[in-house]
Amino acid sequence: VVELTQDADPAEEIHGRDLHSFCSIPRTREEIANYLGISVSNYMMKKYVTPLLENGTLRMTYPEKPRSKKQTYVITAIE
After folding, report:
1. Exposure of 33 by Cβ count < 10 A (0-12 exposed, 13-18 middle, 19+ buried)?
2. Contact, 76 vs 70, CB < 8 A?
3. Which of 11, 14, 53, 67 is the most buried (most CB within 10 A)?
4. What is the pTM (predicted TM-score) of this model?
5. Ramachandran region of residue 8, left (φ > 0), alpha (ψ -120 to 50) or beta?
């Protein structure tokens, strides 16, 4: 479980942790929430995953169906 500080920007805090290695394979919303120790995945999506999607750190495996039950998230390639 990753511990987050209250003062830190969520995207920067997670980005600096080992979420890169955790999401090196596609992960579901539930898997990411469990990894972060958060039980409410809607909160987790808004607070943590969406900023990482917006800054290009994560990508959806099914971008054409963002609400798909099969949706997973994976780290983008670092060049």
Report:
1. buried
2. no
3. 14
4. 0.73
5. beta
| Cα–Cα distances in angstroms (integers) from residue 19 to residues 15, 37, 46, 48, 68, in the given order | 6, 13, 16, 11, 22
Residue 64: CA count within 13 A, CB half-sphere: 0
Between CA 38 and CA 3 the distance in angstroms is: 11
Q: Tens-of-pLDDT digits for all 79 residues of the chain? A: 555 545 555 555 554 466 778 899 999 999 988 888 888 778 888 888 888 899 898 999 999 999 999 999 999 875 4
Distance CA(32)–CA(59), nearest Å, equals 13
